[in-house]
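Sequence decides. Our protein:
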Amino acid sequence: MLTTLLLATGCTAASNQESVMDVIEQRDVVVSFVVDTTEQLTAGNWEANTGTASPQGCTLDNGEEGAAYTFKLWSPERSDDPAADAQKIVEYWESLGTSTRVVDHGGSPVVYGTGGPVLRASFSTDAAGETYRIGAIAKCAPGDAIELKREANEGRKDGERFPGDEYVPEENVDDVYRNQ
């Protein structure tokens, strides 16, 4: 009877379920989200000066352990109008379905985002040393953060590069990961 009801309404169980991205797809989404956000601004010289996209542990909706990647970029180039840049980011993120709120810290606004392609994001117009910082965390997906880090480290030792690696300053790359 359930099958008849589903067929009569034109629905199937598969069509009512969202496809779930795996943890690697989520990594690529968070890196793209941050990089694409930098392209909304005139600031340049963006660097991942604290490292590559990195997995961390999280809890899935079903209570099981999962992994979520984080990624951050900094730029030493700030504009003369950080409030206008914050507004650009608000408009861009909202166009992606991200809910935003802006907190003004004495002329240095921070934009916080939730939802859309990532779980959370922020854009700070006055990060350490008067820099811009954009960071985001991917949605939690099935995976083991420790194992993902181990696999990435082994891949990098073999010369493999992952999305976002190109933003790590050369002086921050450990010798063990340099191509010989």
Q: What stands out?
A: Residues 1-19 have pLDDT under 50 and may be disordered. Strands lie at 54-59, 65-75, 99-104, 109-114, 120-127, 131-137, 141-142. DSSP finds four helices and seven strands in the chain. The CA atoms of residues 41 and 85 lie 7 Å apart.
